[in-house]
Amino acid sequence: MIDMNNPKDVGVYDEAKAWLLSNYSGNSWCAAVRNKKGVLSFVPRSSRPCYGEMRRYGVSSTRPDDIKPGDLDQPIPAGTRELIGLRLGLLGEPEHVARLVSFLYSTTGPYRRGVNESLETLTGTKGGPVAILMTDTEVDPTILVASFMASRNLRGRTNIARQFCSLVDDYGLTEAEALFACIHWNVTWQDGETMVWFAPADYFLNFQSDPLLFSSGDSHDLSNGRTFREEEDYNRPYLAETFKTEGYKHPPLPVEFRKHGYQKQSLQLVADYVAEVFRSRIGQKAAA
């Protein structure tokens, strides 16, 4: 944890905050690591291939048998991980983005085991959230990275924050249902028409994830009960299984979503299907 009464710690915190507010793009994140001598160092990672460097590999890792991708040449250094920050890169009206970020990184949202009350949302010059920063890293590292991957999935999609708000305000979905929909469907508005792209993000959130686990934030512990601060390395091979229940499958997709490519569909169709996914699972649990 960052000691705000320690001038050196505060200096690293200020450096991290300034770095996150700079115009970095892509998969950009930062950390602060304290070595065995108690020295805290700032660790910036700008425009990286993914978030796979938020852990170590090989004999120095807590998961030494996991395969290390060849393009990850800057793994986080050894030491106590005291701070973590993420550059968001989400597009849209500031008030829409603020609502999406507020739920995505909420301590009552699906990724609650990967965040805590120390989380700060940093606001950019245009008034919307551009980054998050946590100074208490006693969180599940696998869920933390899963939340970063959710941000990556949503990044660059021009109308995604508007889509999230519309699904809640106009179509009656809960915030958890709307987030699940936004992750797996990309919706754009062109000349007043709705264009829907069904693209399951199975690399970090299996499409067949249990909707009740997702909405309750009751994710599986895939990190040996240890935290990011304790140098536990996130479970890369099973990252997508954080909300999986063995044998569970959603109701069949509507035929309109079984085709590839953009299609003119109503956002109502997305809302209706996602609501049915959550509703049918509640019925299954009640009947069990």
Structure description:
- The strands form 2 sheets. The chain has a 5-stranded antiparallel sheet with strand order 2-1-3-5-4, sandwiched between helices. Strands 6-7-8 form a 3-stranded antiparallel sheet.
- The termini are far apart.
- Helices cover 30% and strands 17% of the residues.
- It has helices at residues 7-20, 94-104, 141-154, 160-169, 175-184, 211-216, 267-287; strands at 27-34, 40-48, 80-87, 120-123, 129-134, 185-190, 193-198, 263-264.
- It contains 7 helices and 8 strands, in the order αβββαββαααββαβα.
- Helix 2 (94-104) packs across helix 4 (160-169) and helix 4 (160-169) packs antiparallel against helix 5 (175-184).
Question: What's this model, at a glance?
Answer:
The protein is an alpha+beta fold. Helices cover 30% and strands 17% of the residues. It has a five-stranded antiparallel beta sheet, with helices on both faces.
